[in-house]
Fold this protein.
Amino acid sequence: MTQHKHRVVIFLGPPGAGKGTQAERLAGEQHLVKISTGDILRDHVARGTELGQQVAPLLKAGKLVPDELLMALIRDRLASMESVRVIFDGFPRTLMQAQELDMLLEELGAPITAVPLLEVPDELLIERIVERGKTSSRNDDTEAVARERQEVYRLQTQPLIDYYAARGHLKPVGGVGSMDEVYARLLSVLGDR
Ligand code: ADP
């Protein structure tokens, strides 16, 4: 496979910003595999796997799962791909994960295409999560846990914004508006419209 076949989009943004929905649509339209670490972990919890049992209390508390566990999952997913066409949603979340992902992508010869950052004001985020909690059946979609996730984001994930900005990958996207409006902005920063 030649290099231009690869496409690596890393979707950054705070919890509740709506990354999952936008990533799903982009993946569908551009034939990318959406790798949502939150979904993968919740699936393990639901199936009661060994990993699931290990991470369940962390998810419920809004804390991060250890980096090594995440990296093993990601390695596994990417290893089976002939060309790396992915959108990461919810990963990386720590500087360590970002650095390890860089090394992994280098090994695979698949450079980062872009890092869109979905921006939504804090007040709106908690509101959206609590609203989603009414139907999501996610036990971390409560106001208290949402605030903890926001704090974890501020401390652990926000540094990634500088990390990717310094490498010229960061593309801010306004996350307030209708789903279609936000999606159009996402496409435009990706240079696809
Ligand atoms: P949200 O973006 O709404 O906060 P996610 O579905 O992305 O939710 O993640 C839910 C939970 O899964 C996180 O609070 C965390 O416990 C765990 N998790 C997901 N991705 C990672 C990651 N890359 N590193 C560590 N923990 C993660």
